Amino acid sequence: MSVVALVPAAGRGERLGFGIPKALVPVDGVPLLVRAVRGLLAAGCVRHVVVAAPPTDLDTVTAALAEVGAAADVVAGGAERTDSVRLALEFALRTFPDTRVVLVHDAARAFTPPEVVRAVVDAVLGGSPAVIPVLPVADTIKQVDADGVVIATPDRSALRVVQTPQGFDADVLRRAHVTCDGPATDDAGLVERLGVPVSTVAGHPNAMKITTRFDLAVAEAILSRGVG
Ligand SMILES: Nc1ccn([C@@H]2O[C@H](COP(=O)(O)OP(=O)(O)OP(=O)(O)O)[C@@H](O)[C@H]2O)c(=O)n1
Ligand SMILES: C[C@](O)(CO)[C@H](O)COP(=O)(O)O
């Protein structure tokens, strides 16, 4: 089994607003990125992690990851998340050409339980070319026009909130990034453009993406309950 995880961590964290990359923001003294990488390795099925870091912070990110030693490499990320994933993927496939499964996991989803990682990997190894963890939508969703006027109320029973890690057959993800004709907000979106089916497994509330100060407060509450 050869599973490599890519961790896009090159965002600036503008909405969090601490003036440092979000991946380096500590929760109870441990940076989000380190928590995310620990979670991946704790799943027991990830052979190696490739982190895409802000090009200006490569040394800081490398130092933060010293505790995981040779299990992680750090590469320079790009302008958009899609660019960061592509750069990490190129490095991973060059360095580990026998990679069979690639996970893509946001540093910002630092409290993802290892069982979600395992469920995604198992589904890809079971034959699904692309697998994403999802949750049901709790709120009613409206589609609006440019003026904010409601034009439709989609049936929420058919909608899902999408998390990471997203898991892929390595060649499918490579093709998706090679043929990429513009950024997507997630990697499954690129795979969908190839016409390859994307399957779902159960996500977890703790796999929430930390985007705002409110999310950070929720993460601190998760931690104080002894999770993560
Ligand atoms: N050029 C980018 C932009 C984002 N990311 C990563 O993609 C994940 C999801 O992005 P998001 O939560 O939007 O992070 P930021 O871009 O840092 O947030 P903001 O938009 O508030 O600056 C994060 O782990 C982030 O570091 C990345 O690797 N490269
Ligand atoms: C990949 C992702 O986390 C799935 O929900 C999300 O799409 C990232 O979005 P962002 O635009 O980088 O915040």
Automatic annotation (TrEMBL):
Catalytic activity: 2-C-methyl-D-erythritol 4-phosphate + CTP + H(+) = 4-CDP-2-C-methyl-D-erythritol + diphosphate
InterPro entries linked: IspD, IspD/TarI, IspD/TarI_cytidylyltransf_bact, ISPD_synthase_CS, Nucleotide-diphossugar_trans
Pathway: Isoprenoid biosynthesis; isopentenyl diphosphate biosynthesis via DXP pathway; isopentenyl diphosphate from 1-deoxy-D-xylulose 5-phosphate: step 2/6
Pfam families recorded: IspD (PF01128)
Positions bearing the site annotation: Transition state stabilizer: 15, 22
GO molecular function, one term: 2-C-methyl-D-erythritol 4-phosphate cytidylyltransferase activity
Swiss-Prot/TrEMBL GO biological process terms: isopentenyl diphosphate biosynthetic process, methylerythritol 4-phosphate pathway
Alphabetically ordered keywords of this record: Isoprene biosynthesis, Nucleotidyltransferase, Transferase
TM regions (residue ranges): none
Site (Positions MEP for the nucleophilic attack): 156, 209
Family: Belongs to the IspD/TarI cytidylyltransferase family. IspD subfamily.
Entry function: Catalyzes the formation of 4-diphosphocytidyl-2-C-methyl-D-erythritol from CTP and 2-C-methyl-D-erythritol 4-phosphate (MEP).
Name the UniProt record assigns to this protein: 2-C-methyl-D-erythritol 4-phosphate cytidylyltransferase
Species whose genome carries this gene: Solihabitans fulvus
Classification lineage: Bacteria, Bacillati, Actinomycetota, Actinomycetes, Pseudonocardiales
